[in-house]
Amino acid sequence: MAFYIVQFLTGLASAASLFLVASGLSIIFGVTRIVNFAHGAFYMLGAYLAFTLTERFSGALGFWGGIVAAALVVAVIGVVIEMVLLRRIYHSPELFQLLATFGLTLMVEDLVVLIWGPSDMLGRRAPGFKGAVDFFGQNIPSYELFLIVLGPVVLGILWLLFQRTRWGVLVRAATQDRDMVAALGVNQKWLFTSVFALGVFLAALGGALQIPRDAVNHAMDLRIIVDVFVVVVIGGLGSITGAFVAAVLVSELNAFGILIFPKISIILVFLVMAVVLIVRPWGLFGKPEAPARRSPGLTVNPWRPLTSSERLAALAVIAIAAALPLFAGNYALTVGAEIAIFVIFAASLHFLMSVGGLASFGHAAYFGLGAYGVAFLAKMAGLPMIACLLLGPLLGLLGAAVFGFFAVQLSGVYFAMLTLAFAQIVWSIAFQWVEVTGGDNGILGVWPEKWAASPSHFYWLSLGIAVLMVAALRVVIFSPFGFALRATRDSPLRGEAIGINGKRIQWTAFVIAGSVAGVGGALFAYLKGSVFPDVVGISLSVDALVMVLLGGVETISGAVVGAVIYKALNIWLVSQTDLSKLVLGGFIVLIVVAFPKGIVGVIEAIRLRYRRAPAPAVLAQRIESAE
Amino acid sequence: MSSPSALLSVEGLTKSYGGVHAVRGVSFALKAGEILALIGPNGAGKSTCFDMLNGQKSPDSGRIMLLGEDTTGRAPREIWRLGVGRTFQITATFPTMTVRENVQVALVSHRGQLFNLFASTPKLAREEAGRLLELVGMSGYADRPCGELAYGDLKRLELAVALANQPKLLLMDEPTAGMAPRERVELMRLTAQIAREKSIGVLFTEHDMDVVFEHADRILVLNRGNLIAEGTPAEVRGNPEVRAVYLGEGLVYDARHRDGAPA
Fold this sequence. Notes:
A: mainly alpha, ABC transporter involved in vitamin B12 uptake, BtuC, 4 strands, globular, B: alpha/beta, Rossmann fold, four-stranded antiparallel β-sheet
């Protein structure tokens, strides 16, 4: 019995940091409507800085002062980032905000390694809390008890801050209607900045307080951010009480999940989240919000099928690509095959995200399921390669059918967070279920058969399937189904009023996108000859997002162009520099701020301007005759 | 009470939000080819009534019969399939499509082709879309992006979209809100003309009394959720209760003038 109580108390202690970070995220979202992906990075920075400061200064004052100072320094960094970067993108579509803050996360990860080195570091123990308390024969570190008390204390301070101060009233008002607050003459800029500073301070404090418990390392940002997303989704974005209750719930689920289901401890939390979202899509303590102002997008530029000359140009490009083996070496062909595979992957995400308006942050799940599908069929069932390529993606289809059903019940940032969480479920299954998936060691020896084994043959196979998939998706985009999907994205109200069952259309689109991603994953397994849990990882999901964004979210061929350029750049970058994440993150931020239409979007805008030049006279005539 | 030929008949429709009774026991019927106006001051319950007829809200009690089927609490898309066209107070269209494509989507849906993955939509039902746009005087705009249209044109486009499923009933929530006076009159003349030619029943709400009295065959007056008057334009015009609702009771005005006090 005592053991369970100790386990319970450990869970409560873990909840403290989680609550600090999650409440910061929630506060920032409430006012600025930005889901700050970089919150995990601030948490990590807080931990690293606290480590350095507490090593430098000794004694109780040095330790506690160091922790608070670290959080303050990170808050200042946050203020600078808010003023320089976020102020430029408050009015961008939410997808761009998520991506920009993710870009920051990538940059911080490399900077941290650059400054503090790649190895884990164990911090000092807290002065005054070095011992342990004996509890019916079980030891509880007294620092854990300190954290258990700290959580509710911070909750109380935040409550006082928001209920009893003028600033708190303004923040609550802005959470409900920021336009009205601006109309009342409140300087929004400084309100946003101060809220961001508080949120970042809480995240950094959460990180700093972890150093006596856990080793500081450069992967702690992604680990906490996934947990925090889960917490705010369960508790309700924007609710601090919700963040506290959900942080306790998640921490306890983690603490006891390991005892009860050691194999699927991570899944337990996500299952609870899925249930909460289905019963209360706005979280336990959140309020159902009126659909967020629909960002009209960057342009209104109706899509049209390729003209015959553009078709010829596309064929010419394909012909040139197909001729690559005539003059390129084996390495280039392998890179070429990888690019073709990522074209499939990016095109499938584009279908969901640009056509359907559903920005998935966990699309790698279906890519990875396709890859594992092939690996299972080839290694366990011993099926021939053709059969594997045809049947493997069915695992992606199946996953998309199950997860997609739940995911399309939501939209916007909640959709993004839920898809991310689902991808993490798949990842943790791949990682933990060692008997079947081989866990971290993966499944090795998935080699193509002889007819496809040479680099040129495999390149042709990948290219052929990529062309087929992209062409098929284009057909679907202009099919009645594609129009129904866009209709649901543009105006769910009007769509419903002309007989379109939006959820069913979106679910079908999710399944199509998941299946096509599975095809990409199936080829990827043969390209690498092995499958590791990485193929369902967050970084792969984000790669796909960046490809679509780089090419141009609001264009049809953006995904293809984006995939080719991004993948080529990425492979080249990794071979050139150790700081690829830093460059990549900076690149993402740059696109979002300076270049949101993407490559194809910019080209189209230029072409449109040329074509429109003589138009005004004609337009004026039309308007006259119409009246 | 409802005649067998009624397109739409409503009995005892009631809806409240918390303690506010938005609609209380409203009953009426609408015949094919009839143009019925639903008027009343702000907060009278017009929009709530509309949303219940359309399926966007479900009533607390009461019954809605559309074309002989009980549609109480059914989803908007099912009600549309029965032959009900709808326009919104604030236009709802697809801004990233061309004007013609907006109509084509509705036509494709009407033909049950929504899950067709192969056909090319821009080529589907092109002529029919053209005819509908012609009908509302928008053929010159067919290839323009819908997102660029002026508001009055959007309202006309909505009418074309609402006519795509060859409706027997049109539900129009403030069809001329936000339009210039001349455009208002034109749009309602057009609607009335189409409705009479095709024998479509029309139920509309409106604040512009010129529009209401020119086109409505019958008028329903709502006040605080209750139906207070029903009849021809002339009858409603003469109804003292309606005058009181729209012009106030005149207590202060009368008192002042009786006593001869300075204004």
